[in-house]
Amino acid sequence: MDIKIIYEDDDLLVIDKPSGVTVNKSESAKEETVQDWAEKQFTIDHLPFTIDREGDFYQRSGIVHRLDKETSGILLIAKNPASFLNLQSQFAERKVHKTYIALVHGKVVPENGEINVPVGRLSFNRKRFGIVAGGRDSVTSYRAISNFKFQISNSKKPEELTLLELYPKTGRTHQIRVHLKYFNHPVFSDPLYGGRKVSRKDRQILPRLFLHASEISFLHPKDGREIFLQSKLPKGLEEFTKSLSPTID
Length: 249
Description:
Layout: E1 4-8, E2 12-17, H1 34-41, E3 43-44, E4 47-48, H2 56-59, E5 72-78, H3 81-92, E6 97-105, E7 112-116, E8 119-122, E9 125-131, E10 139-150, E11 159-168, H4 175-182, H5 196-205, E12 211-219, E13 226-230, H6 235-242, E14 245-246
Parallel strand pairs: 5-12
Antiparallel strand pairs: 1-2, 2-5, 3-4, 6-11, 6-12, 7-10, 8-9, 10-11, 10-14, 12-13
């Protein structure tokens, strides 16, 4: 598996996860995962990760958080239990700041704002999440970067699209995708939350979700210095945005 390492030292490893790669091992994950890859990168106490040991650090092979399979971008992996616990605490205390880039349907108004609605697993479909009463508090801020027009075949009027920067203040599963669907601006090429007809049309043009984890900042688990890292848009997403016509107001 070809995975780019953005940063590495004795305590942590930061990678640029490609789209289409699952993060954690599971019975449903038939292909190699990031977790499989991580177990091959380094050993703990001169023993491989695959040695059975208790605790989340070993069960998750040091992977601190997660990204959806089709989401690309920055992912943190701790190299020792102390760093793992420290980084997990930073996530829980909202000391980790993340930025995502997404292309969404429609013109987003206002251009800056916050989506604050609870997210939870849907009772009628346990693989999906939505805005549900009693769900977990979930907050996503956003900023519009650019507006585009996109000509759909067999349509007289071009569709409007918006490129967003998103700043999730919480880390719920599928949070950004669910919030944008609720906001009536689903992520381009989202097979779960984009709507059946819309996502089918999108994926004929772009066969992956347009969502990328582009920036992260956190405190180094050993010495407390601030770490700020960036990941550029993957080539396929960058080329797709260049093919769009910018909207001039």
